[in-house]
Amino acid sequence: MAGVTESAAVTRVRALLAEPATLVDGYLDVLGAERVPQSTAQRVMGSTLLPKIYERLWRPVLFFGFTMRNTADEDRLKRRLLDISAGEAVLDVACGPGNTTRSLVGDVGADGLAVGVDSSATMLAQAVEETPRDDPVAYVRADGADLPFADATVDAVSCYGALYLMDDPFASLHEMIRVLKPGGRIAVLTTCARGPEPVRRLSVAASQLAPLRLFDVHEITMALRAAGLVDVQRRVTAASQTVSARRPG
Ligand SMILES: C[S@@+](CC[C@H](N)C(=O)[O-])C[C@H]1O[C@@H](n2cnc3c(N)ncnc32)[C@H](O)[C@@H]1O
């Protein structure tokens, strides 16, 4: 896509960035040659094949098993938890091929902005390809643990299906909270260890060696409360937890 001009949404997101970015294949890249630490699962996410089959094949099958919810139900719940008004800016961290970012377009409306952030160039290239150029959507290549936005920049943040892949998930969670405006909402979908405490402890510890990290049922809610968020809620289904909260103000 060499020589492609910036869409209006890309120009608006560039104005929100706290660091310089280069337009690459239709998304803004703040990482350049810098690499985000990668697990084996994360390397699969960065392959050329997975972004092509992710949204239509991989995700519906695997996420149904993981959450026992279909994508439409998951989107409905997410939009309710994020409670986005027209004109607001929402950040979708670890957006993959943009499926979770595009699901927010109707809520932000033409005057709002949905920004997808991911560290994978192949995922972002697919996201740009799948997104109509005039939509209020733009993508940024960055590390979730080092978001290139100033404090209190966005009205809502989502992070779906990704925290368990990240090298430092709690650093990412703190970054998401940092960029939330007072009154801003966050919704996270990730893994959940269930059962009696000794079993949970063992499975959480064992998962440190596995490609996907398992979070204890209380781990994410505790981190959000410790960071000062309020209205912290958790919904556990199958092997997943959907956690939401609000920044006071
Ligand atoms: C399974 S996809 C999730 C895509 C979408 N959010 C969804 O729910 O379908 C996980 C994404 O997390 C991204 N990711 C993993 N670690 C990351 C990090 N440290 N910073 C940014 N993105 C990351 C991967 O590149 C991948 O695109």
From TrEMBL:
Biological processes per GO annotation: methylation
Top-level lineage group: Bacteria
Keywords, in A-Z order: Methyltransferase, Transferase
GO molecular function, one term: methyltransferase activity
Pfam families: Methyltransf_11
Domain (Methyltransferase type) ranges: 91-187
Stored InterPro entries: Methyltransf_11 (IPR013216), SAM-dependent_MTases_sf (IPR029063)
Signal peptide: none
Protein name, as recorded: Methyltransferase domain-containing protein
Lineage of the organism: Bacteria, Bacillati, Actinomycetota, Actinomycetes, Mycobacteriales
